[in-house]
Design a protein that fits this description.
Chain A: It holds the Pfam family CO_deh_flav_C. Chain A: This is Carbon monoxide dehydrogenase. The complex is a heterodimer of chains A (297) and B (193). With 297 residues, chain A is of the alpha+beta class. Chain A has helices at residues 9-18, 31-36, 72-78, 84-91, 96-99, 104-110, 117-124, 142-145, 216-228, 231-234, 240-252, 264-296, and strands at residues 2-4, 23-25, 44-47, 57-59, 63-67, 126-132, 136-141, 146-148, 151-152, 159-166, 172-177, 188-195, 200-206. A five-stranded antiparallel sheet of chain A has the order 4-5-10-6-7. In chain A, helix 4 packs antiparallel against helix 7 (117-124). Chain A is globular, with a radius of gyration of 20 Å. Chain B has seven helices and five strands, in the order ββαβββαααααα. The longest helix of chain B has 17 residues, at 175-191. Chain B has 193 residues and is an alpha+beta fold. Chain B has a five-stranded mixed sheet with strand order 2-1-5-3-4, with helices on both faces. Classes of the chains: A alpha+beta (297), B alpha+beta (193).
Chain lengths: 297, 193
């Protein structure tokens, strides 16, 4: 095994181009587990800890460009206003020790269906910035990023540079099922974001299909129901029948398996429950801010 | 490969390190610092918690090469680390006891590297006084994690303590005593004892 230590992003890209089999390691919270358990013996480890750019973020007009190695602790503490869904998801990651090391780039690189960040990224709307020495950088829409169980759209010579995540324009929520409040691989997880600007709702489901997925039929149903009832304008409580059908459609979007953490039928059921709850929480929050702003005006 | 880094304030060099080796292995097997415990090797148990450039991490999930040029504090260096922190904040040199203490430590052959001969840090003393040590295997990780939390958050709520220690497992299930110990350390810290 060789340990490659690029000191800059350019050096990292050059190293990845020269050794496409090199396994990038940043927080190490996935890669080191595999090495410690002898599940993986990469020819090259490509250490990204010295690439300072990966630890920075920029808050723009529309989106946040989040460096791939920004630890979850920073997202929780410093980006709660801009990225509330991802901040909530980050807070559910493992433990303080792990959150101090791990970042969204690792979640995307591993592309486990159980990665905590995925549902929040899908719900908020995001693009993954990847780069290779040969072809420069490109943005991959999050909807096209996950291609299979622990597979993603990266080419062998590419590295993940950053994630561009849309800044919240409305309430966002994140919910995760597990046996504890810490150190839990999600049995299943659900992210929901209201986008009042476009009058749309987006979702993300984790650990309930081969890849993280959106519940598109549920989103379309809810978008239409909210529009038809004038809910975005009148700020009425979402009718129970709408919430129920939304939940059922979210359950139907799952394609889960039975495993040690839970059964397929439990996961389907739990995703429906989380969908209904997160819809209620976010909608109540939307109604609240709406009433407050009207009262102030 | 060779790895150079600072451990408990002292420059260290480890040779013939395998590229896939963890920081934990280097600390325990190459540098003779077995305080950080090796249990799950997957970041689940927190018994290998150390500070890497001040930040609590699981040493089993840091590749040794990633520690190059960085500063590590292990449980062996916790007392000295806490002492220096206290000096930084309330000018310990003015306290009458500290000169005597310094002399006494020297006489005992103080070793900031292994922790032998040094006085305990406040959080270590609190663990003893509260009876928070049973088999002792989880204790080093808990001490490092608890000490870091008290540095950041001198007046933690119970929820703060639980969250800060949520990555550290105790299989003797001595959590209530551990909570007592951290509350005690926080109380003593705020009283300046």
């Amino acid at each position: 095994m060789d340990f490659l230590r690029p000191a800059s992003w350019e050096e990292a890209l050059a190293a990845k181009a020269e050794h496409p089999t090199a396994v990038p390691i940043a927080g190490g919270t996935d890669v080191m587990v595999e090495i410690n358990f002898d599940h993986r013996r990469p020819e090259y480890l490509l250490d990204l800890n010295r690439v300072g750019d990966l630890y920075e973020w920029e808050v723009g007009e529309e989106s946040v460009r989040l460096g791939a190695s920004v630890p979850y602790t920073r997202i929780m503490e410093d980006l709660r206003a801009e990225l509330p869904g991802l901040a909530l998801a980050s807070h559910t990651v493992a433990s303080p020790q792990i959150r101090n090391r791990g970042g969204v780039g690792g979640n995307l690189g591993t592309a486990s269906p159980a990665g905590d960040a995925h549902p929040a990224l899908l719900a908020a709307g995001a693009e993954v910035e990847v780069e290779s020495a040969a072809r420069g950088s490109r943005l991959i829409p999050i909807d096209d990023f996950y291609t299979g169980v622990k597979r993603n759209a990266l080419q062998p010579d590419e590295l993940i540079r950053a994630v561009h995540i849309k800044k919240a324009d409305g309430p966002q929520q994140y919910s995760k099922v597990g046996t504890r409040n810490a150190m839990v691989i999600a049995v299943c997880a659900f992210g929901l974001a209201l986008h009042p600007g476009t009058r749309t709702v987006r979702t993300g489901i984790g650990s309930a299909a081969p890849t993280p997925v959106r519940a598109r039929a549920a989103e379309e149903f809810l978008n239409a129901a909210l529009e038809e009832g004038g809910f975005w304008d009148n700020g009425k409580i979402i009718t129970p029948s709408v919430a129920k059908q939304f939940a059922e459609l979210c359950s139907a979007a799952c394609n889960p398996i039975d495993d040690v953490r839970g059964t397929a039928s439990y996961r389907r059921h739990a995703v429906g429950v989380m969908a209904r709850r997160t819809l209620t929480w976010t909608w109540e929050s939307y109604r609240g801010t709406r009433n407050t702003s009207e009262g102030a005006a | 490969m060779r790895v150079n880094f600072t451990v408990n304030g002292r420059p260290q060099e480890a040779d013939d390190v395998w590229e896939g080796e963890s920081l934990l292995y280097v600390l325990r097997e190459r540098l003779g610092l077995p305080g950080s415990k090796n249990a799950c090797e997957q970041g689940e148990c927190g018994s290998c918690t150390v500070r890497l450039d001040g930040v609590p991490v699981c040493a089993c999930l840091v590749a040794a090469g990633q520690a190059e040029g960085r500063e590590v504090v292990t449980v062996e260096g916790l007392a000295e680390y806490a002492r220096q922190r206290a000096c930084g904040t309330d000018a310990c040199g003015t306290k009458s006891a500290s000169l005597d203490e310094a002399g006494r430590r020297q006489a005992q052959g103080t070793d900031s590297q292994t922790g032998e001969g040094t006085e305990l840090s406040p959080v270590q003393q609190a663990f003893i006084d509260a009876g928070a040590v049973q088999c002792g295997f989880c204790t080093p990780g808990l001490l490092v994690a608890a000490d870091e939390m008290l540095e950041r958050n001198p007046n933690p709520t119970d929820a703060d303590i639980r969250e800060a220690l949520s990555g550290n497992l105790c299989r003797c299930t001595g959590y209530e005593k551990i909570m007592d110990a951290v509350r005690l350390a926080a109380a003593r810290q705020s009283e300046g004892v």
